[in-house]
Amino acid sequence: MRYRLVVRRYKQGWREAEYRAYEVDVDPDTSVLDALEKVSLEQDPTLTFEHACHHGVCGACGMVINGVERLACVTRIGEVARGGVVVVEPLRGFRVVSDLAVDKSRMFSQYALVEPGTLERVDGVVELEKLFDCVECGVCYSACPIANTFPEYLGPSVIALAYRSSKDGKVPAVLDSRRGVWACHAAFECSVRCPVGFKPGETIMKVRRGFLSGKLGVR
Ligand code: SF4
Ligand code: FES
């Protein structure tokens, strides 16, 4: 079947982003990521996007597909196309590096704020330890109306990971601040969009209740 992929393009130095349309003939079961790779291989090698595992584990391929944050590798094109059209845009709330590739250092650097041990430098290269089920895709930042507009906000995944890493009923003090759980407006878009069911929104509410009841402290 023929689909029209409309991709938001942006390269460093461009004055503004633009949308380019590509026609692709693929099966409806084809993933949006595979369709993008087909475009890259057959039509436009300058198209930039991130991927690695191709099965929903590495978190690299988060993007906004027809207005909704998803992992492109586990999203079937036939299920999301509207009238044969699929609009693909980079995640919101992150700096665009090139086309669909964004700089997620805003999220990764905050892991160090809540759990300094999760960031280590080995021969000058930052290594990240994988935490729980979160695939660090950044989808929750993109979907969250606060993370989108308040860059200092720790963000859903970081708060949830800090809580799950808590010891002796204590969490990092930064969670009890305007950058932490009190910034959340309880939209719950993070939990709705999270591709692995991590439910960061529910965890944020749990932390708030813990602070208000005195059952949770800070260290
Ligand atoms: S909490 Fe979910 S949406 Fe957020 S980074 Fe982790 S896996 Fe992605
Ligand atoms: S390529 Fe790894 S999650 Fe999509």
Please, could you describe this protein's structure?
- The protein has 2 domains: 2-102, Roll (Ubiquitin-like (UB roll)), CATH 3.10.20; 113-218, Alpha-helical ferredoxin (Fumarate Reductase Iron-sulfur Protein, Chain B, domain 2, Orthogonal Bundle).
- It is 29% helix and 22% strand.
- The chain has helices spanning 32-42, 77-80, 105-114, 139-143, 145-149, 156-164, 189-193, 200-213; strands spanning 2-9, 18-25, 62-65, 68-71, 85-89, 95-98, 101-103, 119-122, 125-128, 170-171, 217-218.
- The strands form 4 sheets. The protein has a 5-stranded mixed sheet. A two-stranded antiparallel ribbon has the order 6-7. Strands 8-9 form a two-stranded antiparallel sheet.
- The mean pLDDT is 91.
- The structure holds iron/sulfur cluster (SF4) and FE2/S2 (inorganic) cluster.
- FE2/S2 (inorganic) cluster binds next to loops.
- Pathway: Carbohydrate metabolism; tricarboxylic acid cycle.
- Keywords: 2Fe-2S, 3Fe-4S, 4Fe-4S, Iron, Iron-sulfur, Metal-binding, Oxidoreductase, Tricarboxylic acid cycle.
- Its EC number is 1.3.5.1.
- Residues 1-92 form the 2Fe-2S ferredoxin-type domain.
